Amino acid sequence: MNRRTLFRNRRRLAIISVVVLCVVAICMSLVPPRKVSAQNANWRTAPVYNPYPPGILPSDLNSELARVLAEVDFIENRAIARWQALTPPTLTGQPPILQNTGTEAVEALGELMNYDRNISPNRNQACASCHMPYAAFSGPIPSVNLTMIAYPGTAHFRAGKRTAQRYPYAPFFPVLQYNEEQGLFFGGNFWDSRATGYLLRNPDAHQAQGPPVDTQEMGNPDTACIAFKLSRAVYRPLFEQVWGKDSFQIKFPHDTEEICETPGGAAVFGGSATPIRLNAEDRVLANTVYDHWGQSLDAYEQSVQVSAFSSKFDAFLKGKYTLTADEKDGYDLFRGKGNCNSCHLDGRSGLSVKVDVIDGSNW
Q1: Which of 48, 54, 195, 274 has the most Cβ atoms closer than 10 angstroms to its Cβ?
Q2: How many Cβ atoms from other residues are within 10 Å of residue 132's Cβ?
Q3: Same structural domain for residues 131 and 179?
Q4: How far apart are the C-alpha atoms of 353 and 61, rounded to whole Å?
Q5: Number of domains composing the chain
């Protein structure tokens, strides 16, 4: 091939390439842009709420929230794989119970709920966002723990009221009650025991019903939103297997999705805690689903994945560990002069406890 022919071929190839690029550009201009879901669009364009003084919000807050959300997604996908590999339990007996893998089934359901970020209106916060395993099921962002303490909710940056309480052991708190012999209240959940467990007879399940509708946390405007979102969850079949196949026979109004995509506390709701217009029968069904939400999460928190009773203090109680001198001094202070044991009962202290006296003169 001579030089003139080679040049002619290259020129022809260049012309063809330009024509192809032009055709592609024209085609792309004729195709409408890819639609972004309303949910994602709202999250991207929502104004940031920041009434805080300088230094309160950590500089790495956005990147850290993104990191935790990616970890939440990873664990949720792993939980889905575990559930799908689980041999289904057998419904048998009278009264009917789920035999063989029934316990694993309800624990798996609670785990799936715990890491499901779609429960929040902006689909950007799961229960686990404030309760990650590697942080003893408490807050996983070091900079938040050192500054603002409370964690941001679904609306950035509304923050919760207190640091996130840990899951382990919490399922074993009794219903809030007054012990006449000790002259003390004990039981309940949350830091202030406001999740008394009065109705479900389970403070841990009662506690799990708080954050989904707390305007500073997951922020749903109506408890029925959780029933609505669970009815659309990929793990709905597991919920129906555990709690009954007719669990979601609820006639949701046509605007339910729009309502549930709006964080609670919005002016549009006029202060209503039940903006989803359900009839009395459907409201009862939705409330039942919400009770099962709390009970399922409690089952997960009771599991060995969460409450393994494997701490150093557990080993000490079993006689398999000897406290160091500092640890022993701290424990004696806790149940003695420090008077910590008047509110944080360890159930084994033989020292006298004065409920209304705290001596800090030598601290």
Answers
A1: 195
A2: 20
A3: yes
A4: 42
A5: 3
On the 0-12 / 13-18 / 19+ scale of CB atoms within 10 A, 101 is middle
Same domain as 328, residue 294: no
The CA-CA-CA angle for residues 219, 265, 150, to 5°, reads 50
Radius of gyration of the chain (CA): 27
Helix (H, G, I), strand (E, B) or coil at 245: coil
Q: Mind listing the pLDDT tens digit for each residue in 104-132? A: 999 999 999 999 999 999 999 999 999 99
Number of H helices, E strands in the chain: 12, 4
Q: What are the tokens at 136?
A: 């003893």
Compute the distance between CA of residue 242 and CA of residue 192 in angstroms, rounded to an integer.
32
Strands (E) located in the chain: 90-92, 97-99, 177-179, 184-186
217 neighbors 207 (Cβ within 8 angstroms): no
User: What are the pLDDT digits (tens) for 262-295?
Assistant: 999 889 999 999 999 999 999 999 999 999 999 9
Q: Please state the pTM of the whole predicted model.
A: 0.82
In terms of domains, do 285 and 362 share one?
no
**CB neighbours of residue 240 within 10 Å:** 15
The amino acid sitting at 308 is A
Q: Are 193 and 211 in contact (CB under 8 A)?
A: no
Are residues 261 and 362 located together in one domain of the fold?
A: no
Q: Helix or strand or coil: residue 225?
A: helix
Give which of 108, 98, 102 is closest to 76, Cα–Cα: 108
* Domain assignment of residue 339, given as a range: 318-363
Q: How far is CA 331 from CA 103, 338, 340, in A?
A: 36, 10, 10
**Cα 247 to Cα 54: distance, rounded to the nearest angstrom:** 48
* 313 belongs to a structural domain: no
3-class DSSP assignment, residue 132: strand
Q: For residue 328, what are its two tokens?
A: 């022993």
What's at 48, amino acid-wise?
V
Within 10 angstroms of residue 107's Cβ, the number of other Cβ atoms is: 24
CA–CA dist 248, 167 (Å, integer)? 28
The answer to whether the CB of 276 falls within 8 A of the CB of 222 is: yes
| CA atoms of 223 and 276, how far apart (whole Å) | 9
